[in-house]
Amino acid sequence: MFRILSVVPLLALLAGGAFGPVSAQCAPMDDRGNELLAWLRDLAVATDEDDREERDSLRLPAVSESEVVFVQDSATCSAASEAFYRDEASTVPRYAVYVVRVGNVYVVTDNRRRIGEWTSHKVFDSTFVTRLASFAG
User: Tens digit of pLDDT for each residue in 77-128?
Assistant: First the structure.
């Protein structure tokens, strides 16, 4: 009986924890998070006409590099996740999201959701009520 009971916590972890869908949480600052942060910082301070046009099309503000921040606050990530999945069917798995604040807007990304080779991103206002843009990149 001890062997069966010792497996139960492991099964619970695998069913809904580290390896499966999770409730609204922040994705960790990993390689993908660093890439996303660096790209958004470059875009926020860009002066090149093409980059400015891209920034404007994504409805991102032009701000200083210090105003582009990788978010790890659970309340913010929870609101971001709810907003990201708002229009999805309830059967769609929900994973931890990357959240980057760019000035007064938020870019939310679920790295596991792909559109072909691209990752899905959504831009929200500071209240997560209004989606300003959606894009794949």
Answer: 999 999 998 887 777 777 889 999 999 999 999 877 767 778 888 999 999 9
**Does the CA dihedral 117-100-88-129 come out positive or negative?**
negative
pTM of this prediction? Answer: 0.78
Can you read off the two tokens belonging to residue 12? 């619970």
Sheet holding 105-115, edge to edge: 68-70, 98-102, 105-115, 118-124, 131-136
Query: Which token pair is 101?
Result: 């604040």
Q: Which residues of 16-54 are buried (b: 16+ CB within 10 A; e: fewer)?
A: eeeeeebebebbeeeeebeebbeebbebbbbeeeeeeee
The half-sphere exposure of 106 on its side-chain side, counting CA atoms within 13 A, is 26
For 1-30, what is the mean pLDDT? Answer: 49
Scan for tokens 């590099």, then name that residue: 65
Q: Which residues lie below 8 Å from residue 60, measured CB to CB, with a gap of 6+?
A: 40, 43, 44, 102, 103, 105, 107, 123
